[in-house]
Amino acid sequence: MNRKFSYRRGAKVSLMALLACMIALPNALARTSKHPDTLVVATTYDAKTLDPYMTNDVASSNAMRQIYETLVTIDDEDKVIPSLAEKIERIDGMTYRFTLKKGVTFHNGELLTSDDALYSLKRAFEKGASVRHIMGVIDPTGFKKIDDLTFEVKTIAPMSSFLPALTHFGGGVIINRKAVEAAGDDYGFTPVGTGPYKLVDWKKGDRMVFERFEEYHGKRPEFSKMVLRVIPEASNRTIELESGDVDIAFEVSSLDISRVKANKNLELKTLVDNATTYMGFNCSKAPYNNQKLRQAITMAINIPASVKAVFRGNAYPAFGPIAPNVKYANTALEVPQVNIAQAKKLLAEAGYPNGLTTVLWTNSKKVRVGMATIIQAQLKKIGVTVKIQVLEWGAYLQGLKDNKHELFIVGWTCQTPDPDMAVYPTFHSSQIGGNNFAAFGDKEVDALLDTARITPDGPERKAMYFTIQDMLREKAPWVFIANKKIAFGVQDYIEGFVPSPYGFHALYEVTTKK
Amino acid sequence: MLGYILRRCAMLIPVILGVVFIVFVMMYITPGDPARMVLGEQAPQVDVDNLRVEMGLDDPFLLQFGRYVYNAVVHADIGRSYITKRPVWNEVMTAFPVTLKLSAMAMGIALLVGIPCGIITAVRQYSVFDNIITLFALMGISMPVFWLGLLFILLFTVRLGWLPPSGFDSIPAMIMPSVTLGLQSVAIITRMTRSSMLEVVRHDYIRTARSKGQKESMVIWKHALPNALVPVVTIAGIQFGILLGGAVLTEIIFSIPGLGRLMVSSIEMRDYPMVQGGVLFIALAFCLVNLGVDLLYAWLDPRIKSQYT
Amino acid sequence: MQTKKNSLWGQVFGRLKKNRMAILGLCILFGLLITALFANVVAPFPFDEQDLFATLEGPSATHWFGTDEFGRDILSRIIYGSRISLQVGFVAVGFSVMAGGFIGATAGYYGGRTDNILMRFMDVLLSIPQLLLAISVAASLGPGLLNLMLAVGIAAIPQYARLVRASVLSIRDQEFVEAAISVGSSDLRIIFRHILPNCMAPIIVQATLGVAFAILTAAGLSFIGLGLEPPTPEWGAMLSGGREFIRDYPYMTIFPGLAIMITILGLNFLGDGLRDALDPKLRN
């Protein structure tokens, strides 16, 4: 009896020791992945399609980055460098000659030729392609094949923004003609690229599964499999990261940032994206064709406090029309200070001593609605009564087209690494009715924009964009609101993840710490 | 009986056609431009206008409707998604099984918990037990599913860290969504079982059974329960149909890639063929479930069967 | 006839009074009604007053339920929110009872082809799950209080139409209706004076529970983002707004949800009580 009892106790003790070991073990050893051969990434949205010209959204571009390549790409300093094209010559101001890398194969075994490249560029330019406006400087009649690896492309004007446009993951992606023609309308789900991973399974709204492409011509990725999971709820992405079920989580919410920072198993990476959220004035008609009124309203809004409240630390207050990571952004500019007294004075000078009633449009995006709500409360202080209207996108754009808008909140993303994309479509008078929603037309600004876009890169071009930024702050067609800060949560055993401000990240470069 | 089934199925045709028409009208008057959604916020208006023409969105309403019905009936083709360009059928068929699984699990929980609770409360009428369960059932009916789901996440994920907050691909991940979706049905089935049991107990044959000196448990299990379950089965069937359509909120909260979430995002994206196809599919499933319920009811209750011949 | 009716309702109320649950439900509803009517007096703050320096605060003496991400008082927003929810609940149900009642009465009274066409149309609406139907209608009408009410209301029409039709069918052939027809009363008069008042009982029960369902549906629509324009304090929208803060500030989710639950609970208590009171046969 006694022996049996001690036996039992012994079992108990050893069991407890075992338990203690099990608890202590993970802490004693270096942490490793729960799924060693697979990189699991928690993304915010699912891709729409992997046919590069049929969509223009960040989630799709991010997935495409893993399976496709472009002719040229950009390095960490936003400089254009060769990728699929080995050599690029600028023959005259408007003609470029590309020489492709030799022996590059597509996922279906086909060799990459200039036919594929020309087919891709033409297709990106077709009617109905969602990336047309990005590729807009190409002259559709100027494509010329020289031989299997060499071809020429012409632009409609000598523009410095052409090569940067080709780096876009969508517009600049090179696809295989045969694969596209064979798949027809299903191509978006059976993509064939030259990139480091190939798509093997896609559960819509849930996950995309990729496998390493073993014949890839570049550096071989470490992970043989990669999974992009769709987890729209920000807090859920963090929870999955904490539990180790995912290795990298996109867009960690501002509330979770301190949590991730405090967790010694996790690392936080942040960057500022190239989108600018702004409140525009309709400058084409009363009351906002009045510059003083625009300045008064700009001055009455406490941008830093509002941005802090709405984005909860996940954004920087914007200082001008060009986001800080875009080339030639004047990062020395300061965010305008709120000054109620001065705002009231300007309001009176503008002819509205008793304030006015106005309508502010936004779509249902949460941060925009939040911003509208705050602006409404703040403008009350200078006697401006704001009525918020949340419009669905179609109605919103129709209203803009019909010139019915007064104030409106929206965002603009500079999708290529050239400042022309940031300010030309949005402020040039020729773009009224297009993306110049503020209907802003100013001769001085127009002239500068026209010259700047054909001036070769260098100090002269830089000075022009600096002047443009000053002028736009002065003339106040927009109230610059915010540049979003994007935070990524990463496991400590992960290395080599460099987030891109364009939203498409080179996940194939990610490795584990050895 | 077979004739009845065929007649009921034939009656589905005009109903489904009506559904297609109504959804078509609703989508037609919905503000927003699918072409703009396809091309994105920054695309120039000219491109959008061209695409609209290409997509046939500028055609007269009746032409669009006719084309849809023609393709659906003649070519068995319900179109392709505007956004993903994939056949609507494929998209629906990947999402629907998930919703079906979720609803089935919720229903299973509802039956497993609801019926015993209903029996206990009926047998021990007016006991403390009865009062507590009845109150809980009422609370279950009154609780918004989206709130319940969030409270579960708060407790089991945030506070305790036991269950994952999203997905539907493993047993732990399935627990919270199924319970969330099923709780309301648990309450409804509990209440139904209780009142049905109480109703049956009053009938003569139960009294006869009792007076013959049968044991009380025997009376309950053998005589009362089978008869009391007939209306419960009906309610359960109707509930199942409701769950299929009501899974939307649960799917959104737990990031489950089911048909409901697909529908809501398709409405947001103005992906009309997807909305069309999805509603069509859900309506069909809903009608078939209801038909199944009617048949089951007839089979369980011979008095009704005679009406169907 | 008049006296008989009075005593019927008197009896009903007598029975209702004995049901403690129903009285509790009535009290909850009455309290909510008072809160909604006098929201501007009861609420400690205006529902849209922001304080950007006091955002996301926990419950305190000044802010009993804490503040939201804009520093708005959650209690005040819930109090003002009762206006929206009650309005949506009652107006939507009023709409669907009237529309459904009209359709059902017409179908039941005239029968034949009219009945067939109307009820087939109702079948079509019934074959789309109610929540999904409400979502589609809300999306096609766009945001706004009236549209939200319509969306919720339209989705519920068929059930009232069916209910009224069934009641009308059971009453149509009774003697007092035949008597009215024989003295040459108009159809409208017969429907409104003789038939509808006699099928009120099931409609009232259904409508009480319907209000609960309407409030839930409206909150669900707001939760998805198909509701009202900001800064309107709607309970469902508040809940959905609190979602991203759930880990650190769960009370932003808890309190609005509690408000919804208590309201629905009250309506369900009352609805159950009414059903028992109106139909003594069903009493257990």
Question: What report would you give on this structure?
Answer:
The complex is a heterotrimer of chains A (514), B (309) and C (284). Chain A has 514 residues and is an alpha+beta fold. Helix content of chain A is 32%, strand content 22%. Chain A has 15 helices and 19 strands. In chain A, strand 4 and strand 5 (95-100) form a beta hairpin. Chain A is globular and about 70 Å long. Chain B contains 13 helices and no strands. In chain B, helix 5 (88-123) runs antiparallel to helix 6. The longest helix of chain B is centred in the last third of the chain and has 38 residues, at 216-253. The radius of gyration of chain B is 24 Å and the shape is flat. Chain C is mainly α and 284 residues long. Helices cover 74% and strands 0% of the residues of chain C. Chain C has 12 helices and no strands. Classes of the chains: A alpha+beta (514), B mainly alpha (309), C mainly alpha (284). Chains B and C meet through helix 1, helix 6, helix 7, helix 8 and helix 10 of B and helix 5, helix 6, helix 10, helix 11 and helix 12 of C.
Fold blueprint:
The complex is a heterotrimer of chains A (514), B (309) and C (284).
Chain A: H1 2-28, E1 38-43, H2 58-67, E2 72-74, E3 80-82, E4 85-92, E5 95-100, H3 114-124, E6 144-145, E7 150-154, H4 162-165, H5 177-183, E8 197-203, E9 207-212, E10 225-230, H6 234-242, E11 248-249, H7 254-262, E12 266-281, H8 291-300, H9 303-311, E13 315-317, H10 340-349, E14 356-362, H11 366-379, E15 384-390, H12 393-401, E16 407-413, H13 420-427, H14 443-454, H15 459-475, E17 478-491, E18 494-495, E19 511-512
Parallel strand pairs in A: 1-10, 1-11, 14-15, 14-16
Antiparallel strand pairs in A: 2-3, 4-5, 5-7, 6-7, 8-9, 9-10, 11-17, 12-16, 12-17, 13-17, 18-19
Chain B: H1 2-29, H2 34-39, H3 45-55, H4 61-74, H5 88-123, H6 128-142, H7 145-159, H8 171-201, H9 204-211, H10 216-253, H11 259-268, H12 272-300, H13 302-305
Chain C: H1 2-18, H2 20-37, H3 39-42, H4 74-110, H5 112-126, H6 130-141, H7 145-172, H8 175-182, H9 187-195, H10 200-224, H11 235-242, H12 251-278
Helix pairs in contact in C: 1-12, 2-4, 2-12, 4-5, 4-7, 4-10, 4-12, 5-7, 6-7, 7-10, 8-9, 10-11, 10-12, 11-12
